[in-house]
Amino acid sequence: MHDIAAIRKDSDAFARGLAGRGLDGESIAFAVLECDRELRELQTRLQQAQARRNEASKLIGQAKAKNDEAQAQALMAEVAGLKEQIRAGEEEERAKKAEIEELLAALPNLPAPDVPDGNDENDNVEVKGRAFGARPTLNSAREHYELGEQLGMMDFERAAKVSGSRFVYLTGGLARLERAIANFMLDLHTGEFGYTEVQPPILVLDPAMYGTGQLPKFEDDLFFSTTFPSMSRNVWTLVEQEAAARRVVRRLVPHMPEHEIGNVFGTVLVAVQGRMSGYVEDTTHSQTGFGFSVDVAKQLLEEELNRIAIEKRAWLIPTAEVSLTNYVREEILEEESLPRRYTAWTPCFRAEAGAAGKDTRGMIRMHQFSKVELVSIVTPEKSDEEHERMTDCAQAVLKRLNLHHRVMTLCAGDMGFAAKKTYDIEVWLPGQGRFREISSCSNCGDFQARRMNARYRPKNEKGTRFVHTLNGSGLAVGRTLIAIMENYQNPDGSIAIPDALKPYMGGMQKIEKAP
Fold first, then answer.
1. Contact present, 409 and 116 (Cβ < 8 Å)
2. Taking Cα atoms as reference points, which of 365, 399, 381, 364 lies closest to residue 474?
3. What's the CA gap between 515 and 509, in Å, rounded?
């Protein structure tokens, strides 16, 4: 999320940053500032109306004390008008705030000053000093899926019958190798690099996905659980229905005393269940002078219940970044507790909505895969340094496995939504004859922290500041399996075990087809 105060202060920088992302920065900046101007003007009018209402309310008492009933009645009428004006203004204020938030929520983070310009992966820049190893000398290298199917340990056909495309069964030595890879990564990150291992939830609610930037823009790339509330059936508790009905009554009759609302919201509940039509002619309404269309009440209540259903919806995480980063959401941390470094090995789920026709064979692009994630929570002054450190930690895995790789600085147009700077680590795959991404390490600055309201309390300072968040793969386990298979393949189709993984494989020297 962007800081509206920073946009006001330097809208040109904001527009340039969005332009680097391939957006119409000037038009967006103008739209945001125009909404902000309208909101502030509205808030000024509201403050003036509230001040006049308070002043007029005092004058009513003075007029009555002077027995000036005409003046008192005129002031009372003015106060009643001001109350309605304020109520309408507050509704407009909420709508305008929501409009600004909706605008900002859909905008990506701004690139850091040292991020290269560019539109896509062709404009990414290699970090020469981070390259490691050399391409192995292999004759007629085969791709991982050819090796896996020949071993009889990688079955896409059976997985497709059970789950559809982009799933796989791993069995025997390959299943054990994947587990060994993950355990090796966790031991390295926790034992040598100071990360705290976490077993996080893999189902998360909307606010968590919003916090790290997957929602609202990338909903089509995600899976969510359909066992959570559905509008096709009544799944709301009585307490939830009553709370929703109370909110509807408050919206319809904003000045109704709280003790009278309980006499009215039952009517709204009945209305939404389709047992009433026309207008509410409830005795309580007649006495208080209020009336409203049951059709309107029904529509508003359905909106409220739909909002509750959406809030209860649970998403399957596309990466443990979501669970780990949100670990500190809506918290104020002490500066002394930073940096915080977390790691987790979890399954991940992605719909791959935009991947039609890409990597249709093999394990490169799956709906379900496992990954060891790294997340850091730091002060703003330390985030650039932490970004370099995190990339070092991710590279260390590949170095221990002696896998040739390079590191690319992503250009502005190729970065992920929440990142202000990203390093992609690309491993060499002999079977494909090309480098493929195996990790992305990103510095998100305070972008996610603002969406999560995650802060820290600086030493010797008043107030709080937003933390900076970073995330990276340390590494994608399935792609590491692919890299080992293709780089450690033998002419007979067996797979040699890297030295670093032998302790995790029970002394096994290679994976070969069972006789």
1. yes
2. 399
3. 16
CA separation for the pair 247, 258 (Å, rounded) = 11
d(CA 191, CA 395): 16
**Other Cβ atoms within 10 Å of 13 Cβ, number:** 15
Q: Which amino acid is at 386?
A: E
Residue 275 confidence (pLDDT): 36
pLDDT computed for residue 300 by the predictor? 78
Residues of the chain with pLDDT under 50: 229-232, 274-290
DSSP one-letter string for 241-271? HHHHHHHHHHHHSTTS-HHHHTTTHHHHHHH
Order of strands, edge to edge, in the sheet holding 468-476? Answer: 125-126, 405-409, 421-429, 434-443, 468-476, 368-378, 340-349, 196-197
Residues 342 and 325: their CA atoms lie apart, in Å, by 9
- Residue 314: alpha-carbon gap to chain centroid: 13
Q: Domains along the chain?
A: 4-105 (1.10.287.40), 122-210+316-511 (3.30.930.10), 238-312 (no CATH)
Exposure string (b/e) for 314-333, b if CB count within 10 Å is 16 or more? Answer: bbbbbbbbbbbbbbbbeeeb
Name the one residue in this structure whose structure tokens are 């299943």: 175
Long-range CB contact pairs, 364-368, < 8 A, 24+: 364/436, 364/479, 364/482, 365/166, 366/166, 366/167, 366/168, 366/478, 367/163, 367/164, 367/165, 367/166, 367/167, 367/223, 368/163, 368/166, 368/167
Separation between Cα atoms, residue 420 and residue 449, nearest integer Å: 13
Residue 228: both structure tokens together:
């959570």
Handedness of CA 32, 34, 40, 45 (dihedral sign): negative
Q: Cα separation of 244 and 433, whole Å?
A: 59
What integer pLDDT is reported at residue 282 of this predicted model? 42
Q: Which of 326, 342, 316 has its CA nearest to residue 204?
A: 316
What does 338-398 look like in DSSP terms, one character per residue?
--EEEEEEEEEE---TT-TTSS-SSSSS-SEEEEEEEEEEE-GGGHHHHHHHHHHHHHHHH
DSSP code of residue 219? G
203-234 confidence digits (pLDDT tens) = 999 999 999 999 988 999 999 886 554 444 55
Count of CA atoms in the C-beta half-sphere (13 A) of 98: 6
- Cα(460)–Cα(153) distance, rounded to whole angstroms? 59
